[in-house]
Amino acid sequence: MQLERPAPSAPPVLADLYGGQRVVVTGARGFLGRAVCAQLDRAGATVLPLGRAELDLLDRSAVKARLRALRPEVVVHCAVDGGGLGWMRDHPVESGLNNVLINVHVLEGAHEAGARAFLGAGSACAYPRICPVPFVEDDLWQGYPEPTNGPYAQSKRVLLDLCRAYHAQHGFFAMTPLLANLYGPGDHLDPGRAHVVAALLQRVIRLPAGAPLEVWGTGTPTRELLYIDDAAEGLLSCLALSEPAVLNLGTGMEHSIAALAQAVLDAADHSGALVFDPTKPDGQPRKCLSTARAEALLGWRARTPLAEGLRAAVTWYRAAEPPR
Ligand code: GDP
Is 212 inside any structural domain? Predict the structure, then answer.
C-alpha cells in the first residue's frame, strides 16, 4: 500500500525527471502552461508547446495527428476552456462540453502517440459541494460538485476516471492531480474570465487612493490559493510516483474571501474598505485540500506564502495593466 511507504525526504528534482525528454505542453500560452514550460525549460527538457493558435484541441483527428508527429515522451495537459465562478455560471455548456472533448482528445492522443506518461491539470472543484475540510482524496466521489461549475467539474472527473482506466487497461502512466485555485503573475487579464484573486487585483490597482474595493458575495466562503509556480512544480513532480495516484496539490491553508480580499488590499498597499455585494454568487461554501498524501507520496509541499505570492502578482498586474 503506497501510503505506508516512508515519506520521501525531499521533493523530486525536475531535471532528473525531464532532462532530455520530449514534452508536449497543451495550453502552453495560458496561465499554468507558461509556468510549466518555464520549469521544463530549466529542467533541460525539449519543450514542445501547443497553444490555441497552433492546434484546435476540439478536433480529435488533428490532435491525434499532431501528437503522433511530435513523438512526445510526456504530455502535460494544461489547456482548459474555463474561468472564474461568474464565467462558469454563464457558460455551463462550453465549460462542460469543450473540456470533456479537449481532455479526452489529449489523453487518447498521448497514449496513441506512444508517450510514456500523461499529466493533466485536475481541479479541487471536482470534489463534492459539501465535503469535510480539508478535502481528502477518498471523499472525491461522495457527492455532486458545486452546481455553478458542475459541468466543468464533471469534465475533470471524466478525465480522472479515464486516466485510471488507461492505467488499468494499458498500464499507461496517466494522472490528473487535483489543484487548488491558482493565482499569481500571468493570471487572466480578461475580467470576464477572472477568478477571485485576478478579479480583485485588477480592480484594486485601478482604484483611487482610499476608495472601497467591491467583493462578490458575502465574504464568508473559503478558498485555498496555490501560487502558480508551486502548482507547476507540483504537477510536474507527479512523474516521480511509482504509479499514478489520485492526489491533491494545494497548500492546506483555508482563507475566507473576506480575509483574502484584505490580503489583496495589503499586498497592493491600498487603504480602502471592503464592500461586499451579496447579489453576486458565493459559489461553493468551503474549499481546502488535504496536503497529507502529496507530502507522503512525493515529499512535495507548496513553498510560497500567500502574502509573498500576492505581492508578486500585484507587481505583475501593475506592469501588465497600468491603471486606466
Ligand atoms: P471558484 O473557487 O470556482 O468558486 O472560483 P472563483 O475564484 O471565481 O471564486 C471564488 C470565490 O470568490 C467565490 O466565493 C466568490 O463569491 C468570491 N469572489 C469575490 N469577489 C469575486 C470576484 O470579483 N470575482 C470572482 N470570480 N469571485 C469573487
Answer: no
